[in-house]
Amino acid sequence: MSNKLINLENISKSYDNHLVLDEMNLYIRENEFVTLLGPSGCGKTTTLRIIGGFETPDTGRVVFDGQDITRLPAYKRPLNTVFQKYALFSHMSIAENIAFGLKIKNKSKSYIDDKIKYALKLVNLEGYEHRMPDSLSGGQQQRIAIARAIVNEPKVLLLDEPLGALDLKLRQDMQYELIRLKNELGITFIYVTHDQEEALTMSDTIVVMNQGYIQQIGTPEMIYNEPENAFVADFIGDSNIIDSVFIQDELVQILGVKFPCVDKGFGNNKPVDVVIRPEDVELVAPEEGLLQGEVSHIIFKGVHYEMEVMANGFEWLVHSTRMFPVGTKVGIKVDPFNIQIMNKPASEDEEAVAVEE
Amino acid sequence: MKSKFIKWLSLPYIIWAIGFIIIPLLMVFYFGLTDKNSHFTISNVLAIFQPIHIKSLLIALLLSLISTIICLLISYPLAMILSSFKKGNDKMMILIFILPMWMNFLLRTLAWQTLLENEGIINTVLSLVKLPSINIINTPYAIILGMIYNFLPFMVLPIYNVLCKIDGNLLNASRDLGANEIQTFCKITLPLSVPGIISGITMVFVPALTTFVISDLLGGSKILLIGNVIEQEFTLNSNWHLGSGLSIVLMIFIVISMLISAIFDKDGEGNTF
Known about the structure:
The complex is a heterodimer of chains A (357) and B (273). Chain A has 357 residues and is an alpha+beta fold. Helices cover 26% and strands 35% of the residues of chain A. In chain A, the strands form four sheets. Chain A has a six-stranded mixed β-sheet with strand order 6-7-8-3-9-10, with helices on both faces. Chain A has a five-stranded antiparallel β-sheet with strand order 13-12-11-14-20. A five-stranded antiparallel β-sheet of chain A has the order 15-19-16-17-18, with no helix packed on it. Chain A is elongated. The two termini of chain A are 34 Å apart. In chain B, 75% of the residues lie in helices and 0% in strands. Chain B is globular, with a radius of gyration of 23 Å. Classes of the chains: A alpha+beta (357), B mainly alpha (273). At the A-B interface, helix 2 of A face helix 9 and helix 10 of B.
């Protein structure tokens, strides 16, 4: 993998005595699509603004390509930002908006004209040079904002919830467009969102954040399949998180019943959290299951049915393409490799963090 | 039913507007365009070209223009400082700033007279500390001072309003694209605040151009502005025809300045008040 382009070292930031980022360490590699994911107030936008130069951290350093840029003003940084509400200059035409950064850098007129053409083609808005921003739809404005940023050939593009204001269909289209852009441009994208689906779709690496702490860093698959703690499991998709006891290697006791699993090394008879994704819960005939329960609730979701099954005092969330009417007695089975074991949070404090969301 | 009722609610205002706006305006035009025998004439309007009248008009234009420019130069930085305050704190500052407007306009101008008089408070204090006295009462400088003092809030508020409406992310976007603070100001903040500037200019220039109280009290009877001339035609000379004719000329200037502001407002943020 390529080298580290941006390095955040021990970054802390607080507003009015409220700690937003606490001793954060994070590096971002070249040509990576990194997503900072978390609920509002988790510090993801603050992190982006610190990288962009719109905030100064209280402690710590921002290192870019080996250079300390912590105190460098935004206008001197070799990166560009796409803002949440587009932030297009309403008194300038589309062409003038895109040319803004290039004119500041005193590029020649022919160079600027070429760049405008190229950028508009890249975002599929050819011929929009002379329109005013107000006459464009939200999705078009956002694409202009991206065009305005990339003509400056930044090494890193920062995107602050750029699709937040768009409707669902447009958002999905733009996700694919962003992936295409990233591949065509071959630059680093740092993307901030609270939408876990967006993060899973687009990212090479996801950084899950909560309350100023990084909860987990990993590929979308790792984050989804092997969440490191209950917060991550709960935030990324639906899940059953159950208090359990790790009896010994490859055996865990869930709700008083022993389940074979594949994990090792959690000790003997140790309390752990178990995560089982709803689509990994298998409903079978009562005598075939390890646990017996009764369907208490069912909703048709299109692709699958979402059911709640009461078993041994726990309400299991189950996704299945087979329908079991309310009141049906069912058995519950889980494949060993679908049982994800997580250590209990080390401190009360950390647990409070996870439960609050 | 309901909308009909609401329409009727506007009746008092319509009566007011007809009685106190439309009719007086028509009367101004009637008197301005007739002579004492009720014959049509434009000589009252053309009277502006008499040396004494044209001189008072030019002085009025000059003084109100200077006051407007100085108001703008004071107001813009002030409005920028005010708009940079955190929400909550700025309201207090604005309040302090418009507090003088709670006092009567005449009273405030009279106060300046007392302050500026040759044996007034300022000169008394200056002579106590053995400094040379300033003699600006009854000069154009005193009139300009009076205009600035009285009309400054009308410049600050519209500019402040427009500046507050500018999204901070626009400025961040400009910096992000490589513009330093000065470039960001010239290319983003200033153009986006033009509607407020124009609105402020209109709201200072128009009352300054037509005032006669400020020039009366701070200019003595030595400096006649066009407002003083018109006032004297109505009060001293009882020549309503000439007074109205000169008013029409003044109205032309006001309409021109309003038109300019309307043109700029069309592509701007809309009215600030």
